[in-house]
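haha ok so turns out i had the wrong file open the whole time. this is the CORRECT one, sorry everyone. sequence first:
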Amino acid sequence: MGALVANNDLSYKVEMKKVSSMVKIFLEEKSVTGTENMILVSSLSSRPITLKNCAQEPHVVDLCRMLVAMGVSIEGIGTDTLIITGKEFLNGTEFRIGVDHIEVGTYAIAVMITGGKLEIEGVSNADLDAIVTPLSKFGLIFEQNGDKLNVFSDGLKSVEKIFTNTWPGFPTDLMSAVIVLATQSNGVTLCHDWMFESRMFFVDKLISMGANIIIADPHRVFVSGPTHLRGRELESPDIRAGMALVLAALVADGKSVINKAELIERGYEDAVGKLQSLGADIKKVV
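then structure:
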């Protein structure tokens, strides 16, 4: 892309030089953040830039649509190949972001493990197949009613195996929550996340709460359920694992304290308020 990068200990100096020819870049990994960063850089370049093997998640699509509204030309939105012709200065715009599919799945799980019902508004145009299909196998029932999605269950059951994949496959960011769901489902579930080496490293905290989990390797765990969980004081290791601990605390007997809650709030806006609106006995201690 014409960048000259110089590293001096803890600092980087980046200098852009003009490149007149078309640039083609193949992303070795379908990274959401990597794709978004490349899209942003390309949006300020007046020459066409082709990005291949792009992530296709809904928030990547949202970013592309917003940039188009700001004056950027982007072909192939929603596919793994994007052709971007940017401009030096972008226009202002007003844009409404789409439904957060990870939030939809997380709160659906929260309600199901506690035996409740959930109505989610504003999901008429959301692409939720990657969430609805796998969770339905656990016994969750999703009913679309206009722009509302109703979620309930007649009983939770295990599935033989659930595994992550690049979009439109089951998202890795929901695996931690699904492990908690499996602790309350009847039977044994193999949870397999091949994408991130550290995804399963939080399950020792669930085990301390009483979960019946066998760690096969860094990518796979066997979860037996249902199990009665007990309240504990725990520390959130990251966004997704932290929210999974909150879910476990909702169904556990007794009081739980989840420290480093600021990590959870990076990925779940007003999580405490939303859970309180669903009837959870939860509060944030500042």
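The chain has a mean pLDDT of 93.
again sry for the mixup
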